[in-house]
Automatic annotation (TrEMBL):
This is Replication termination factor 2. Residues 10-25, 194-206 have a biased composition (Basic and acidic residues). GO terms for biological process: DNA replication termination. It comes from Coemansia thaxteri. Residues 235-252 have a biased composition (Low complexity). The gene is rtf2. One of its GO terms (cellular component) is nucleus. Residues 207-219 have a biased composition (Basic residues). Coiled coil: none annotated.
Length: 263
């Protein structure tokens, strides 16, 4: 193979080069995840919601899906974890002034840039309110499930000891921090575990509230005027008399008058 009078190998046969199309695919995939609704495939527009796995949707698309599960061909696969509006969180995103200016220029007849283009980096509609970095897939972003605020992971790491949101200053737990569109399988597995735990806690809270609102005792009045206990044991001595009902009292007074007349 070379230097022996035979064929001379080419450079691409000896050195493994990273293909440009693979790099373009990764970039376009990041753009698709951060610029488009995961369900409708339309550009993300406010109001935007996120699920517990970090995927982004237009709220209008989610409402349409919940009303008609067949509205989107692959909706049952993409939104298998979304059964109601409680399974998504409305996000507090920060608009990007540069994107607003670009949209104004387009409205005035300017050239519209192609989003899925390897040659040009599109301008994201949203950015981190702390670092001012665009949410375009080049750096990781997060949101907090309890308040819905969106920011870059770098911004939160600059305040590692803080227990309040860096945007709205509301307290939060670390388990409520959800990475947006993470491609790490370990992160995805962890988010699924958090989702299960969060939903189990929600169901437990619902059952506890339901049992608390249930009446402790139920009584019904029969035609003879006696009180019958239903599904409850009355505390006190076994021979303690039950309280008399209005009908029983009237019957007792009437009987006493009859006995007096006979006497």
């Amino acid at each position: 193979m070379g230097n022996d009078g035979g064929s001379i190998p080419r450079r691409n046969e000896m050195v493994r080069e990273k293909k440009k199309d693979e790099k373009a695919d990764r970039k376009n995939q990041a753009i698709a995840l951060n610029f488009f609704c995961a369900l409708s495939k339309q550009p993300l527009e406010q109001p935007i919601v996120g699920d517990e796995l970090g995927r982004l949707y237009n709220r209008e698309a989610i409402l349409e899906y919940l009303l008609d599960r067949s509205a989107f061909g692959d909706g049952h696969t993409i939104c298998e974890n979304i059964q109601c509006l409680k399974d998504v969180k409305t996000l507090n995103v920060t608009p990007n002034p540069a994107a607003l200016n670009s949209e104004r220029q387009q409205a005035n007849g300017g050239k519209k840039p192609a989003l899925l283009s390897f040659d040009a980096q599109p301008t994201s509609r949203f950015l981190c309110p702390i670092t001012m970095k665009e949410m375009n897939g080049n750096m990781p972003f997060e949101f907090i499930w309890s308040c819905g605020c969106v920011f870059s992971a770098q911004a939160r790491k600059e305040l590692p000891t803080s227990t309040t949101c860096i945007v709205c200053d509301k307290p939060y737990d670390l388990v409520d921090v959800i990475p947006i569109n993470s491609q790490d399988s370990k992160v995805a597995d962890e988010l699924r575990e958090r989702m299960r735990a969060r939903r189990e806690a929600r169901e437990d809270k619902k059952r506890a509230a339901k049992s608390k609102s249930k009446p402790k005792s139920k009584r019904k009045l029969d035609v003879s005027g006696s009180v019958e206990e239903v599904n409850i044991a009355v505390a006190g001595p076994a021979d303690a008399p039950l309280p008399s009902s209005p009908l029983a009292s009237k019957a007792g007074v009437k009987g006493a008058k009859v006995q007096k007349t006979m006497a």
